[in-house]
Amino acid sequence: MSISNYFDEDELVSVLTTHPLNKLLDYFAPKGGCQLGAFVEVPLGKRSVLGVIWEKGKGDLDSLKIKKVIRVLDINPMRGELRKFLVSAAKYTLTPPSAMLRSATRVSNLLEPLPTQKFYRLSDCNPKPLTEARSRVLKVMQQQGGNLRILKDIEKQAKVSASVIKGLVKLGALAEEEHRVDQPFSDLDLSKPGKLLTEDQQTAVQDLCEKIRNGDCGTTLLQGVTGSGKTEVYLEAIAEVVKMKRQVLVLLPEIALAGEFLNRVNARFGVFPAEWHSGMTLTERRRIWHMVSEEKAQLVVGARSALFLPFKNLGLIIVDEEHDSSYKQEEGIFYNARDMSVLRATIACGHVILCSATPSLETWVNAKSTKYRKLILTKRFGDAELPSISAIDMRKEECKPQKWISPSLRTRITDRLNASEQTLLFVNRRGYAPVTLCRACGQQVGCLHCDARLVEHRLLNRLQCHQCGFSIPIPTSCSVCGAEGKLVSIGPGVERLAEEAKEYFPEASIVVLSSDMYNSIHELKAKISAISRGDADIIVGTQLVAKGHNFSKLTLVGVIDSDLSLQGSDLRAAERTFQLMRQVVGRAGRADKLGEAVLQTYQPDHPVIRAILSGDDEAFWAAEIAERKAAGMPPFGRLASIILSGSDQNVVNGIANSLAQNSKPLDHIDAQVFGPAPAPIARIRGRYRVRLLVKAKKKVTFQSALSRWIAMVKLKGDVRLNVDIDPQSFM
Ligand code: ADP
Ligand code: ZN
Description:
Radius of gyration: 29 Å
Strand order of the largest sheet: 14-15-13-16-19-12-20
Number of strands: 35
Helix content: 25-40%
Bound molecules: adenosine-5'-diphosphate, zinc ion
Shape: globular
């Protein structure tokens, strides 16, 4: 007999494993029974794999073939909320549930026992004789307020050898205990006061806290110009949720660079939050995963994959810079962490706060339609004012060939240098030059494995493929025609722009800020904080600098090529440019000095450039929305990309064509299929890529029709098929 959440020994259970099988498997419950959601080890063929008790067994298999669960792992069972989220997310993104489970268990092998180690604690017996070394140890232990310490830390802090500590154990002055290596994260100190808030901020905080206290779930767009104090507002929402004994997840786009944010958390709550991103060690990941599941981590700051952590009681998800394109994952599982946050919070009965100065069009529309609530901060905090924005019409400027800093911009930089203020020159291209061309035969140097040009990185002395990482030393002769000394660099990257700036301003200290310029995140972080202390006159940077850093001496932003991201047929080109420019421009004048932003452009009359200059956001969004509506494009219609790739071009094309020709399962939703067409980057890592685009009306059962359609194709050889629902990029 079983109560619904528990299965007795030998009852049938259905298990979802991390093994890529697209179905649940039946097993008999193990000795001692098991709970719904329990993490288990199950036999599969000759191996044993990790799984989760997903539901009651179906019994549709011959019972002689059914095996027994090997054991239940000593981990909190996966909660119904997370199971439901994984299933819903799998359905939405057309991803196999087993892949979703792998995302939710991306931590050192859960089948292995949790490691333990020796910890030390002060006991009340006084050691005799009390040598100087011994008393140093006791002092260090006392300072810790009775917390457990490991040997290494005590050794280091008390400057003693292990034998001193062991001696104290023998004398009974220290107790030695075996505990799990992974220790809880300290609780936030809620007794510390927050900042004195402005009226705007206070209104927003009150509104949010009231919703939180009432246990309302739902999504709030917190919109406000850069520097208006959105972070201050959501720190108070965090305090409220933690007070209610629930957990909080903050998603940030460039988490590895979030040093400033971590410091602000520490200043507000007296502790640093748990950090979850690709830069963490396996040990750190294991600690966070388990502590989150045991409710011993109240606040996690993470990259998009933190959405899959096993929170025990998730009450709030904050998505900062919600419009940022890095929230969209485009390999493995294709998903948008912003949308999945809303899904997860809905299931967990939690709240979502989406923050941005320039929300994505989807969010903007949702806030307009009252699906999301909207709170607005209208002014920058304190005396900081928004920078004035103007355009430099490049058609009227005298720039030498292969030079990009216009005379007008140079004049303004000179003014800033004279005032000891900083300038940011923004160009969204890493490296020295995007193209290397042979002047003898006209050939551009391309990647061997991709349909992409190699980017010159002069500091590394290499040409590099930004798609696959392939690189070669910078050649001196053309590999096609053999001409010597005829290769030239075309176009600007950050390195080249810095070189140009050096020519005009030889005395200035110039720093390049680009994600590939530093050997480690640590080095990059150090550079950023040096700059924010004023250690540079001119910063040349990619969009890395557009993200949330506060450089208080920065008063001039020059956007070198404002037209760059307007090119291309991308549905979101205008929106992206608008957001990026606004973000970059928002870097200027964040403290007490007025900032100025100038956009170099050859199209000063382009509607997007005009919208940025005029500051009339509403008008820009209204025009964008009208255009998308007319075209039936998201969020007013549905889109999905199908990407087929494989090493044999003919096989890939064959499958793509047969998909396009057999689109009957899509008929009843009235979908249009475009393509197949070679992807804009038609080859990556030696794999040919072909795309199909499916477009449908908004209110249809899009995913189920798509999955029936895709199920008809038989993949041959190494061909892979990826579905990208709500695609953001069309490369
Ligand atoms: P946003 O997240 O909207 O860009 P921030 O929260 O980072 O804005 O605020 C910008 C700057 O103003 C930060 O240095 C922040 O500490 C400061 N600030 C904002 N609101 C307040 C306040 N009420 N009291 C003191 N400082 C504030
Ligand atoms: Zn390549």
